[in-house]
Amino acid sequence: MNFTANEIAQHVNGKIVGDGETRLTGFAKADNASAGNLTFAENEKFFRLAEQSQAAAILAPSEFQSQTKTVIQVKDARIAFARVLPLFFPEKTFAPGIHPSAVVASSAKIAESAHIGANCVIGENVDIGESTVVEANCTIGDNSALGQEGRLFPNVSIYHDCRLAKRVRVHSGTVIGSDGFGYVFDQDHHRKIPQIGGVIIEEDVEIGANCTIDRGALGDTKIGRGTKIDNLVQIGHNVIIGEHCIIIAQNGIGGSSDIGAYSILAGQAGVAGHLKIGPKSVVAAKSGVITDIEGGQQYMGYPAIPAGEAKRQIIAVKKLPDLAKRVRELEQKLEECSNNPCAKP
User: Fold this and answer.
1) 82 contacts: CB under 8 Å, gap ≥ 6
2) What topology does CATH give the domain 156-303?
């Protein structure tokens, strides 16, 4: 596919500086661009690289212009980049229909525009909405539902009684609705507590590869609309994640914790069970949350505390060797004075 610079500018509400009829045939990084490519630059360094490249045009913030290249000026180059890239690299489309190798229960309701791939298993009373794609080897358990324009990548498992709203995307290897980790010690063994709740995932959620989202013990585990979950994330039973959160790789969230809207949990952060994370919290990488936090600021460390306080503690710890040395010196002087009384001033 190819577009003129004017067409791209219209798509991103940008302004053309240079030849608006420049024909753009692809999108590439500046150091990899060839003739006809569009590239983008967020700052002075990358803009100069883009100018020296073979690219035909540059997507850049409004303060940049060039004597040699057509520039599409935008308010935010990264947002514009995200909007333009699908024009040049559209996702694969799937023909409506059910693959002959799929096993579909007679009570399942599948929209005519949906795609069901090879070797899928669709349980009783499953409801799959318009234009939803279920790729090969997926399993959808009884009484579960997928809303319109959703997409399950290959090898996703959806257990029974799970509900995914419109435009939910789930990547390969993820399991939604597995049993929560619920046991009680009974005399001499751990007795399993049946997990009879479900999972509710609201619209526009994207879930990465190899994640596990447990079903609720009694109520439902809930993921709020617009939330994005990275790969290798474990979400325990009855967790509630608010809307538009970012949960980055290798997070573990204990059962019944509540993550407030617009929060960010950075890589390898951990949240203990039955806690409340206030909205707009930012939990730094490798932090451990073991108490409720109010939100609206950054937290770090173990246990996670406000970042300013944590940084002061880190600085204080770095000073401990010098402090210990001074203490030893003072102790030595005191010992000398006790053996040989110091002269009074």
Assistant:
1) none
2) UDP N-Acetylglucosamine Acyltransferase; domain 1 (2.160.10)
Q: Which of 11, 237, 244, 274 is catalytic?
A: 237
Report whether 144 contacts 161 (CB < 8 A).
Answer: yes
pTM for the full model? Answer: 0.90
End-to-end CA distance of the chain: 90
Radius of gyration (Cα) for the chain, nearest Å?
Answer: 28
Indicate the fold that domain 3-88 takes in CATH: 3.40.1390
- What is the tens place of the pLDDT at every residue in 27-84? 999 988 999 999 999 999 999 999 999 999 999 999 999 999 999 999 999 999 999 9
CA 13 – CA 248 distance, rounded (Å): 31
Q: Whole-angstrom Cα distance, residue 236 to residue 18?
A: 54
Closest C-alpha to 303, from 271, 337, 335, 329: 271
Q: At what angle do helices 307-318 and 320-339 cross, to 10 degrees?
A: 50
15 sits in which H/E element: strand 15-17
pLDDT tens per residue across span 68-113: 999 999 999 999 999 999 999 999 999 999 999 999 999 999 999 9
Distance CA 204, CA 212 (A): 18
Residue boundaries of the structural domains of the chain: 3-88, 156-303, 311-345
Q: DSSP letter for 31, please.
A: G
Annotation marks residue 99 as catalytic: no
pLDDT at 345 over 70: no
Could you give the count of Cα atoms lying within 13 Å of 288 in the half-sphere of its Cβ? 4
pLDDT in tens, 131-189: 999 999 999 999 999 999 999 999 999 999 999 999 999 999 999 999 999 999 999 99
Widest distance between CA atoms in the chain: 101
The Cα-based distances of 213 to 12, 142, 167, 181, 289 in angstroms read: 36, 17, 18, 11, 19
